[in-house]
Structure formats: C-alpha cells, structure tokens
Amino acid sequence: MTGREGPIGPEPDLLSSLRHRVAAARGLVILTGAGVSAESGVPTFRDTDGVWSRFRPEDLATPEAFRSDPARVWEWYDLRRRAIATCEPNAGHRAIAKALLRRENVTLVTQNVDGLHGRAMMELGGSPAHPRILELHGTLFRVRCSGCQQEVPHVEPVDVSRLLPHCGECGGLFRPAVVWFGEMLPEQTLDTAFRRASEAEICIVAGTSAVVHPAASVPLATLRAGGRLIEVNPEPTPLSSHAEWTLRGPSAVLLPALLGEEAAGA
Ligand code: BV8
Ligand code: ZN
After folding, report:
1. Which of 21, 37, 120, 253 has its CB 3.0 to 4.6 Å from that of 264, i.e. a possible disulfide?
2. Which of 179, 169, 178 shows the shortest CA–CA distance to 148?
3. Which domain holds residue 224?
4. Using one digit for the tens of pLDDT, what is the confidence trace for 160-198?
5. 112 lines ligand 1 (CB under 6 A)
C-alpha cells in the first residue's frame, strides 16, 4: 500500500494503520534533520528563510573557513547558539524521546546540532547522552580544542571582538564540536547508525532535505535489508521515491501521531 496524501495531509486511517505498523516494528530507526526543529523556531538550512539563505555553508561550515577567519565562524555559531537557547523542544521531539524511553528497539539518528532532542529527553527524565541517540554531526553546545582535541561543554555567549575561547590545557583555539563539510563523521556513531538502519523494519525520515551525505544514505540501509521508509516532510526530497509512505505535513503533528502519542502540543 503506498500511502498517499489527501489535500490536507494524510488520511486518518493511513495514520492509524501506520501507527500500528510502527508500534509492531521489530526495529525502528528515526532519522531527523533541521525540519524537526522548525516548529520550535529554529531556522532550517535550506528552506527559503533557512539559516544558510543568509550565509553560504562553504563560507562558514568548513575547516578552511575556520582557518581563514575563525572570528567570523565563531560569530555565526554563537548567533545560532543564542537563538536556539530561546527555543523549546516541540511535540515531535517529545514523541521521539518517549519512544526511545519506552522501547529498546528504537534508535534516533540525528543530523541536528541544536540539542533539542537531548532537551526533550531531559524533560522526560532521560539522558541527552542516551546510547540510542546518534548525533551524526555533533552539537553546538560542545567545543573541541584545535590542539589537543579535548571536547568540553560550551553554552556561554562569545564576544568575538575579544579573545576567542582557548583550551585551558594546551592553549589551542576552541572550535564548535560539529562536523563541517569535508570532515569525516564520527566513525563509530556512523557505523552504528548504518547497522541499526540495516536491522530496522521501518525507518522514519523526518524533517530532512536528504541532500547531505553520508547521513542521507542511512535510510537506504533499511531498504537494502528489506525494510521500509516513511517520510515525514511537507516537501518532496530525493528519498521520497524510496519511501513506501510519504506524509506531507509538519513533524510536530505527524511524529506524535505516528509514534502513538497524543496530538501536538500535548
Ligand atoms: C563527508 C554541522 C567524507 C555543521 C552539517 C556530492 C554528492 C554527495 C556528497 C557530497 C558531494 N560533494 C560533497 C559531498 C559531501 C558533503 C555533502 O553531503 N554535501 C552536500 C551539500 C552535497 N558531505 C560532507 O562533507 C560530510 N563529510 O562526506 O566526509 C569526506 C571527507 C573528506 C573529504 C571529502 C569527503 C559532512 C557533512 C556534515 C556537514 N555538517 N552540519 C553545522 O550545522 O553548522 S550539515 C547541515 O545540513 C546540518 O547538520 C543539517 O542538519 C544538515 C542537513 O540539512 P537538513 O537537516 O536536511 O536541513 P534542511 O534545511 O536542508 O532541510 C530541512 C527539511 O525539513 C526540508 O526538506 C523541509 O521541507 C523540511 N521541513 C521544514 N519544516 C518542516 C519540515 N519537515 C517536517 N516538519 C516541518 N515543520
Ligand atoms: Zn587543548
């Protein structure tokens, strides 16, 4: 059955049959992108008013950019960190957190660096460092020393007109602990993501334009192993043609419905 859309989003019986299928799935992987945080007020990357629209990723989210102008890169990340600090997890983040806490066979693979999945976990008494939360691209709320590579939490604002943050151990310049374009993803995290996807009966792909690799290839591991994809996104993406079901709507409404939680805003 290829669930298609009515004019105002998925028909209720499609949602209820998918909810049962998701609940019964032996293994479930949820891949999220910036769209899952859109309803929390976090700008996405590639939507028209996305955070990239005012900046070019090549200018800022690369090691070259940091080498050539660390203050400008720090300013952009500081701006994003301050903006996100005023945002709250939404019903989509909470539905995923409840599923992670309730079921051993659920894994979250996120491209997001905004920390909102972790905050939703903490709201429910869970840990942001839950072993089945795989942060492929790191987080804005930790920094890494360019010298000794140690990583430390970092939440305070940075005044880039003054000295940039440096490591207390070796004096190296701190950088955001995120994965930049052209950088390898954390190997073990990525391997685990592909393995869990290959063991999953269903992979829910929510809020991602599916253009950034290797993250966008994770759901294909589910397909290769005979599993199925459910896409949750108001817009089509390169993964839409691989999805058995596409739910065209906001994740803060559809994820609670899919994962068996009460409607959004609860
Ligand atoms: C690597 C951290 C090996 C930093 C990020 C050509 C082909 C294929 C690949 C490549 C290529 N050329 C280069 C590459 C590799 C490159 C890549 O994929 N480039 C792309 C752009 C073509 N990848 C890499 O460089 C990766 N590393 O490959 O290493 C290597 C090593 C050495 C040399 C060569 C290769 C590293 C990629 C990681 C980059 N870091 N973030 C930071 O955030 O500052 S990526 C960045 O994009 C974020 O992490 C973000 O999450 C991610 C993906 O974006 P999305 O999350 O999908 O967000 P987007 O705005 O795009 O989409 C939002 C979606 O939500 C939309 O579809 C929208 O419709 C939807 N939406 C909106 N509202 C809602 C909604 N959905 C649901 N509900 C709503 N309410
Ligand atoms: Zn250091």
Report:
1. 253
2. 169
3. 1-42+90-137+185-266
4. 888 899 999 999 999 999 999 999 999 999 999 999 999
5. yes
